[in-house]
Amino acid sequence: MTQPAKPASQAVPEGHDDLQRSLTNRHIQLIAIGGAIGTGLFMGSGKTISLAGPSIVFVYAIIGIMLFFVMRAMGELLLSNLKYRSFIDFSADLLGPWAGFFTGWTYWFCWIITGIADVIAISAYAQFWFPDIPQWAPAIACVGLLLSLNLLTVKLFGEIEFWFAMIKIVAIVTLVGAGIYMVSTAFTSPAGRTASLANLWSDGGMFPHGAMGFFAGFQIAVFAFVGIELVGTTAAEAKDPEKTLPRAINSIPVRIIIFYVCALIAIMAVTPWRDVVPSKSPFVELFVLAGLPAAAGIINFVVLTSAASSANSGVFSTSRMLFGLALKGDAPRSFGVLSKASVPSRGLLFSCICLLGGAFLMWVIPDLVEAFTLVTTISAILFMFVWSLILLSYIQYRRTRAHLHAASKYRMPGGVVMCVLCLAFFAGILVLLTFEADTRSALIATPIWFAILGAAYAWLRGKRASQALMTPVEIEHAEQTHQA
């Protein structure tokens, strides 16, 4: 038994409230953190360290600073009109319907690609215990688990995701604490490696691979931050957005320092950067090299649940995105149907079927690192497109809604100038992606998605234009024929 789709004329925020009504602020804050801190840090940091060496610490810090300004722009926009519930709403309002269509579907595809990266990482983590099983088997099992989990009530999903994210946070904080302890006690591993902050600069300095190595680190590091925008969108749905949204966004620098910078410093202080294996998680390898294999198994479980947590947040987001697009008429109506548990089950099923592309990709590309690099690069490009639309919306907001900016209590530092700098930064990263063969192939493939979107939007506009010329009786007859 399903609930029928709401009329297209109904406001999206109201339908969105129906989906979110069972989630407390405690849930949505941890879901946001869980989505932002995931596979890119746990799995991808091994390759970024090998590319940039210790300078990767600066790479993560610079990206974090830039994205903090993007989130501040989003924060001012969301608070300028409390009817906005996400960047999709204000991009459609400020830039036009095309922006809402492109942003909504691209954001859905972003999380599908990110989910594929997560299931690839889960397969790699599973091989830590089961090296002989087919690589695609854990991916299929993971997708099945995610579908089952998300078909439950929203409240139960929120509670499970809350504890998934909590495990992840505790693990990172514990790792940082363990690194501090090992450095302070000059811990020496069985292999003769002594933990010391000097490991950061004693082997070739902070920039051992020069400027090119430093810039190469940006390619993969951007992926570690995908999902950071969930902090703003979930906080905007809280009971008191004027307080919760600034608090959530302003805490981003602290999270970046603790979860990214401190974690990487701890890893490279205990494990010299040249010993970090690109194809393995440095979080696991840290304890292996320290002679603590039992702890390595525990950490491997943690990073596996972390990838599952990130994928779970992504599946949750994509199903709600399809629901909102269906309400606006930008997606098939069937995605706007809710189950008895008030869950958009058809959107969930469609998203999970798309996630099975991860298993297919691992069959086509057996090298997990190569497959992971391909999908994370595509994901980073698409997320940068979404972040850029947020910045362009802010620029348009400053041009056309000057009175709202003047009345704002949460203004973006730097304003339009900072928006331009951030846009230039994203453009620079796109240029860097052309330097390596694996990231260049992903950059070349990405425009196919926008071509598909452009064709779909042109078809949708033509369909709406033809319906505008039809009588109500003709429209009803056409809908009955389509349903039949």
What does this structure look like?
The structure is a single chain. 73% of the residues lie in helices and 0% in strands. With 484 residues, the protein is mainly alpha-helical. It has two domains: 434 residues, Up-down Bundle (Amino acid/polyamine transporter I); 38 residues. Helix 5 packs across helix 20 and helix 18 packs antiparallel against helix 20. The longest helix has 36 residues. 48% of the residues are buried.
In short:
It is globular and about 75 Å long. The chain contains 23 helices and no strands.
Structure characteristics:
single chain; about 475 residues; mainly alpha; Amino acid/polyamine transporter I; 2 domains; about 75% helix; globular; disordered N terminus
Secondary structure blueprint with pairings:
Blueprint: H1 12-20, H2 25-36, H3 39-42, H4 45-52, H5 56-80, H6 87-95, H7 97-126, H8 136-150, H9 154-184, H10 210-221, H11 230-235, H12 241-250, H13 252-270, H14 282-289, H15 293-328, H16 345-355, H17 357-364, H18 368-400, H19 402-407, H20 415-432, H21 437-445, H22 447-468, H23 472-483
Largest sheet: none
Radius of gyration: 23 Å
> Roughly how many Å apart are the termini?
19 Å
Low-confidence stretches: 1-21
The CATH topology annotation of the largest domain reads as: Amino acid/polyamine transporter I
Shape: globular
**SS-based structural class?**
mainly alpha
> CATH homologous superfamily of the largest domain?
Amino acid/polyamine transporter I
Q: What's the CATH architecture of the largest domain?
A: Up-down Bundle
Helix content: over 70%
User: What count of domains describes the coordinates?
Assistant: 2
- Overall strand count: 0
Proportion of strand residues:
under 5%
Mean pLDDT: 78
In N-to-C order, the SSE pattern is HHHHHHHHHHHHHHHHHHHHHHH
By CATH reckoning, the class of the largest domain would read Mainly Alpha
Note the total helix count: 23
